[in-house]
Recover the amino acids of this structure.
């Protein structure tokens, strides 16, 4: 019996061949990132047994309590990547400012933005959490220290993006713009094995995902859309089912596979929305669009938003193309729009 499997490393090298100008740097960067993810996965899977649950007692840049796992994941990514010579600069949800590459290391041509551990408040109750990353080519001169300008590029400029779901298995999904591919970690081999080749999101789904607890803060158009989804109409497969994990990576991963829509809108409580543009919404939008879906802030593609600061928030409606177009119709025809 021929036991054939495609590892992440092999797939990245093959994908690199699609970029004629490639030098192998991106492959090495993604492989280094995969090592950090394997270490994080090991700790997540035994979280109840080792001292990484709960809080560090510190507050992060956003005034949120920092969980031990957030900082552990941040440190793992930083240490796996900082000396590889592939990056000129990094930025993390856990650090207020951009993160310079230590001076004694070679400065590379890529930029890495990441959310080391998204949804970590769910770890204490064994619900899936995730890591999200976004990679750009630098815009400042090669060989010089990276700058904020290198980090604040439109999502359209991403050359790679990916996420990891630490769930019933650890799965890494990434794209370099040529298809979206999913890899499942085989703990016995310690390798990510290709399990979902060329993922395509259904053009329309039957599941919507939003925190209904915020209903009273929503704009009229959004309220009308959710009511529309709950009305019965067999022709348009309504009512939809409601699913909300409260972990963006898990909710969008399900949306990517089953179809439907994930929403974190702006509302009277969160006028800019809650989710971060640079290291949550841009990478997830790059992936969902590469899989044939759509991602907007209600008026504009997420990937076309011109960033102004590292930790800025944005409303997001992301998922199956027909479902996202439908919510935009309700939002923009109600006379009131999302900010
Ligand atoms: P809420 C987790 O804290 C997170 O950033 C996303 O992963 C998740 O989708 C969202 O916030 C949940 O926010 O306000 O519904 O609890």
């Amino acid at each position: 019996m021929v036991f054939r499997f495609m590892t992440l490393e092999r797939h990245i090298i093959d994908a690199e061949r699609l970029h004629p100008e490639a030098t192998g740097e991106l492959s090495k960067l993604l492989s280094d990132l995969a090592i950090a993810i394997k270490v994080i996965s090991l700790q997540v899977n035994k979280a109840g047994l080792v001292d990484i649950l709960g809080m560090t007692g510190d507050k992060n840049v956003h005034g949120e309590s920092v969980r031990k796992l957030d900082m552990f994941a941040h440190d793992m990514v930083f240490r796996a990547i900082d000396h590889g010579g592939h990056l000129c600069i990094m930025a993390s949800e856990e650090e207020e400012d951009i993160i310079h590459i230590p001076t004694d290391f070679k400065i590379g041509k890529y930029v890495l933005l990441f959310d080391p551990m998204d949804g970590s408040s769910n770890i204490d109750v064994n619900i899936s959490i995730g890591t999200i990353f976004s990679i750009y080519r630098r815009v400042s001169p090669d060989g010089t220290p990276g700058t904020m300008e290198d980090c604040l590029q439109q999502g359209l400029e991403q050359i790679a993006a990916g996420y990891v779901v630490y769930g019933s298995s650890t799965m890494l999904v990434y794209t370099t713009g040529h298809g979206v591919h999913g890899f499942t970690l085989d703990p016995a081999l310690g390798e990510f094995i290709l399990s979902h080749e060329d993922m395509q999101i259904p053009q329309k789904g039957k599941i919507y995902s939003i925190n209904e607890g915020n209903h009273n803060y929503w704009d009229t158009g959004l309220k009308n859309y959710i009511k529309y989804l709950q009305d019965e109409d067999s022709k348009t497969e309504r009512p939809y089912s409601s699913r909300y994990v409260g972990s963006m990576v898990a909710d969008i991963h399900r949306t990517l596979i089953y179809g439907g829509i994930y929403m974190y809108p702006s509302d009277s409580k969160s006028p800019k929305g809650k989710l971060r543009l640079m290291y949550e919404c841009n990478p997830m939008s790059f992936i969902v669009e590469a899989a044939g879906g759509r991602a907007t802030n209600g008026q504009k593609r997420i990937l076309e938003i011109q960033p102004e600061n590292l930790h800025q928030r944005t409303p997001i409606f992301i998922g199956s193309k027909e479902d996202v177009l439908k919510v935009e119709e309700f939002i923009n025809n109600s006379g009131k729009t999302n900010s």
Q: What stands out?
A: The mean pLDDT is 91.
